[in-house]
Amino acid sequence: MKTKHKKENSYPFHLDDDLVQNSYRQHENNPVQILLNLYRGNYKKLMLSTLCYIVKHSPVWALPIVTANIVNYVTNPPENVHQLLLTNMILIVALILINIPANYLHTRFKSLATRSVEASLRSTLVRKIQQLSISFHKEMESGRIQSKIMRDVEAVETLSSQMFISLLNILINIVVALSVTVAKSRVVFFFFLLTIPVAALTIFVFKRPMKKHNRKFRKEIETTSAKVMEMVEMIPITRAHALEQKESSRMSQQLIEVAAEGYRLDVIQSTFGSVSWAVFQIFQVICLIFTANLALNHKIPAGDIVLYQSYFATIVNQVSAVITLLPTITRGMESVSSIGEILNDNDIEDNRGKTKLSSLRGEYRLDDIHFQYAKDQKAILDGITLDVHAGETIAFVGESGAGKSTLINIIIGFLMPNKGTLYIDGIDSRKLNLPSYRKNIAVVPQTTVLFSGSIRDNITYGLEHFTEDDVQKAVRAANLEDVIQKLPNGLDTMVGSHGDKLSGGQKQRISIARALIRNPEVIIFDEATSALDSFSEKQIQGALANLSKGKTTFLVAHRLSTIRTADKIVVLRNGKCVEYGTWDELIAKKGIFYQMHSLQA
Question: What pTM does this model have?
Answer without folding.
Answer: 0.64
